[in-house]
Design goal:
The structure holds two protein chains of two kinds. By secondary structure, chain A is mostly helical. Chain A has a single domain, classed as Cytochrome C Oxidase, Chain A (Up-down Bundle). Chain A is about 70% helix and about 0% strand. Chain B is about 70% helix and about 0% strand. Classes of the chains: A mainly alpha, B mainly alpha. Bound molecules: copper (II) ion.
């Protein structure tokens, strides 16, 4: 590549602002909006894949006895459901918002490292294919299907699992690489690309939430990657990291997994917790309340989330003093989370609120995630956890936390920013139906599971005793309704993105919106803020 | 550097590029090949090979492209700073990776082994149920079902290797000083010396591994001690290899006339990486070999 050639290409690129044509626009993308959209599309697609697996699980649990799946297939389906939802649906969607929004919110021309950005994205489909490929291989007679250990991949079960486990560990390595690259890019972008005058304490809350998320990813994902390598060497190269016969310890894997896994909960949660105040402030027509308190809470949550992991292991057999430490530190983390809740309440307090779809989902987030958080406090009690840990109570808890939090937040943010991204309004009526049906169906699925858990129904078992049958049927019917409701959502976003029937969105989109992203036309031009905007 | 004189030049946003997606494809093939290979499917070798070839090709092309852009002067101060912070965060993630492996070592040594042995304590209520009544806590430990082995003497090859790597840290700094002062011969000599020291280190390390396997009976199968020993020293050795390759690339670029006293980010990034690998070795020497 000669220098003359390069500089002519560069000036060529600067002279026109239109996106490149054809499939290479996406395959070779270096534009943060295009890469953000790819993350969002991929994440939503995988949300439906994970949802389909959830419907399979609930079909099996609709009635007692095995009807739909074999026990082996059931184990594989619950495992892939978990891995897909966490790594291939929620994380890509929140990363997509980061890519699309952060440069717009801080007045940057693009992400700092555009090619790295694209690399991070394309690792995701590669990892997703590796994760589910064992099902394809099984069809041609190779192996026993995907990993079937549950998404936590506990040793020694994982050491004895079939070849699908290797595919999963390799997939997690690629996912870790992807997240690390995306996080590096976000940190460099926020540190380097802010428009003049956009000081750290003027950054939008969403940007702050992603700074903490990216720091957490860099602080914990490499540990899980190291753990996955040890799993592979234990499985195939004769090491004894997780086996007592060689002096190792299966509980070590649990420590490694949850050292990553607990911060991961906040990695899933924080980006939407950062978007929520934007949405609440917009529809309450008030400035957001407690900016600094929220930023400091994010920092506190980030630090504390690294030192509380073993509350997932109260039933694994740890010394009592260790249990007590992890119980108390876990309870303490609810303090900064409660500060966030108070700031959200303060933001809508006495506001002149209207209830468009994003606002409905934002309020739904507060209620459902609130239930998830409070039941989490119940489980953080090491003594009580002995009773609840391996029951459906825990399943219900973390679905309130992770569907009620991140996924409700994702819906809110998608409806909120879809007009900005596409230039057209979505159907408000369909959006409200989507919200109310989702709220009702979600509670129908998971409220009975609290009761089932208290009654003692064990989780991760494909069959159950007869006394659990009525509530399971309610839960399954709720799941079918919840799944069907999401088709409304799919239709609504497709219609907005590709149709022409929606009203044209203005630059501000919402009456109460503020922020640099709302100073740009809807949709924003391909390149934005080539010269930094003036910050008042 | 143009950026010094042109404070308002726009940030360089590269044109659409095929390298990232192809590199992801190469890593997909590498992952697929590895997963097939460890399950004894011969096709794994072919997939691994294809992935490795593709990865090497893309890395050459991608880095070549970036070097070309750097020579064409499209990077200013802002881009330079972005690369620097990117490299620092990458090294941070590597620090976490090695810290996790050290965490594994401490956990196995100070928690897992004593815990397993506590079953056999004189008045333990669990003693009748102990699967291995003769197991005692000690380090090195090959586990209750493991076979005996000897450990590497820290004051032989490991001490020599420590000396080699520490000297290589000095020579690379000397090379950097030469580059900054415009003394190209010192730069080349320093780089060549550093590479030579790194390669010698690797040679000794390979020799040590083969001794461990043939003479000491210390292998990957030697319980927790063998596992933690080989994963820590192995990954460190891999990083020395990568560092040496990057240093060689820097030497080749120096010969081609790249780098000026003011503008040599790639060189600096490699020296950071090399110092990081150095520090990891010091930790290894103390906690794996010595104590
Ligand atoms: Cu947790």
């Amino acid at each position: 590549m000669s220098a003359a050639n390069l500089s002519s290409e560069q000036s060529h690129a600067q002279h026109h602002d239109a996106p490149p044509r054809g499939i290479t626009r996406w395959l070779y993308a270096t534009n943060h909006k295009d890469i953000g959209v790819m993350y969002l599309v991929f994440g939503v697609l995988m949300f439906f894949v994970g949802g389909l697996l959830a419907e399979l699980i609930r079909s099996e649990l609709l009635t007692p006895t095995m009807r739909v799946l074999t026990p082996e297939a059931y184990n594989q389906v619950i495992t892939i459901h978990g891995l897909v939802m966490v790594f291939a649906a929620v994380m890509p969607i929140t990363t997509g918002f980061a890519n699309y929004l952060i440069p717009l919110m801080i007045g940057a021309p693009d992400m700092a490292l555009p090619r790295l950005n694209n690399w991070g994205f394309w690792l995701l489909p590669a990892a997703a294919v590796l994760l589910v490929l064992p099902w394809g291989l099984k069809l041609i007679g190779i192996g026993t299907g995907t990993i079937d250990t549950g998404w936590t991949m506990y040793a020694p079960l994982s050491i004895q699992a079939g070849p699908g486990a290797d595919f999963a560990f390799v997939a997690v390595l690629l996912l870790g690489l992807s997240s690390t690259m995306a996080s590096i890019n976000i940190l460099v972008t926020v540190a380097q690309q802010r428009a003049p005058g956009m000081s750290w304490l003027r950054l939008p809350v969403f940007v702050w939430s992603w700074v903490i998320t990216a720091l957490l990813l860099i602080a914990v994902f490499p540990a899980l990657m190291a753990g996955c390598i040890m799993q592979i060497t234990d499985r195939h190269f004769g090491t004894h990291f997780f086996s007592a016969s060689g002096g190792g310890d299966p509980v070590l894997w649990e420590h490694i997994f949850w050292f990553f896994g607990h911060p991961e909960v906040y990695i899933l949660l924080l980006p939407t917790a950062g978007l929520l105040p934007h949405i609440l402030a917009t529809f309450a027509r008030k400035p957001l309340y407690g900016y600094k308190a929220q930023v400091y809470s994010f920092c506190a949550i980030g630090v504390m989330s690294i030192v509380v992991w073993a509350h997932h292991m109260f039933t694994s057999g740890m010394p009592t003093d260790v249990n007590i430490y992890f119980m108390l530190s876990t309870m303490a983390i609810s303090v900064p989370v409660a500060v966030l809740f108070f700031c959200w309440f303060g933001t809508i307090w006495r506001g002149s609120m209207t209830f468009e779809t994003p606002m409905l989902f934002a309020l739904g987030y507060i209620v459902l995630f609130g239930i998830g958080g409070l039941t989490g406090l119940v489980l953080s009690d090491a003594a009580a956890d002995q009773q609840y840990h391996n029951t459906y109570f825990l399943v219900a808890h973390f679905h309130y936390a992770l569907f009620g939090g991140p996924i409700m937040g994702i819906f809110a943010a998608l409806y909120y920013y879809l007009p900005k991204m596409t230039g057209r309004m979505y159907s408000e009526i369909l959006g409200r139906w989507h919200f109310w049906l989702t709220l009702a169906a979600f509670n129908l699925v998971f409220m009975p599971q609290f009761l089932l858990g208290i009654a003692g129904m064990p989780r991760r078992i494909p069959d159950y005793a007869l006394q659990f049958a009525p509530l399971n049927m309610v839960s399954s019917i709720g799941a079918f309704a919840l799944g069907a409701t999401q088709l409304l959502f799919l239709y609504n976003i497709l219609r907005t993105a590709f149709g022409t029937s929606g009203a044209v969105a203005s630059a501000r989109v919402w009456e109460g919106s503020s922020g640099l992203e709302f100073t740009l036309p809807s949709p924003p031009p391909f390149h934005t803020f080539a010269t930094p905007p003036a910050i008042d | 550097m143009n950026a010094v004189t042109e404070p308002h030049r726009p940030y360089y946003i590269p044109n659409p590029s095929p390298y990232p997606v192809v590199l992801s494809g190469a890593l997909f093939l590498l992952g697929l090949g590895a997963a097939l290979r460890v399950n004894a499917l011969t096709a794994g070798w072919w997939v691994l090979g294809a992935g490795a070839l593709l990865a090497v090709y893309v890395l050459f092309a991608w880095f070549g492209r970036v070097i070309g852009e750097s020579r064409a002067g499209v990077y200013g101060l802002q881009e330079d700073r972005a690369f620097r912070w990117g490299m620092l965060w990458f090294i941070t993630s590597e620090v976490v990776f090695f810290a996790s492996l050290f965490g594994v070592l401490f956990y196995e040594r100070n928690i897992a082994v004593p815990w397993l042995a506590s079953f056999n304590a004189p008045h333990s209520a669990l003693a009748p149920f102990s699967p291995w009544p003769h197991f005692t806590a000690q380090w090195p430990n090959g586990g209750p079902a493991g076979q005996g082995f000897e450990v590497v003497n820290p004051w032989g090859i490991p001490a020599l290797n420590t000396l080699l790597l520490l000297s290589s840290g000095v020579t690379v700094t000397w090379a950097h000083a030469g580059l900054r002062a415009g003394r190209r011969t010192q730069l080349k000599a320093g780089l060549a010396l550093t590479i030579a020291l790194g390669v010698t280190f690797l040679g000794f390390q390979l020799h040590e591994f083969s001794e461990a396997y043939r003479v000491l009976g210390l292998t990957l199968h030697s319980g927790v001690y063998g596992a933690t020993f080989f994963i820590l020293t192995g990954f460190h050795g891999l990083h020395v290899t990568i560092g040496a390759i990057m240093l060689a690339a820097m030497l080749a670029r120096t010969w081609r006339g790249d780098f000026t006293p003011e503008n040599h980010f790639a060189f600096e990034a490699v020296t950071w990486y090399w110092h990081f690998v150095d520090v990891v070795w010091l930790m290894l020497f103390v906690f794996v070999y010595w104590l």
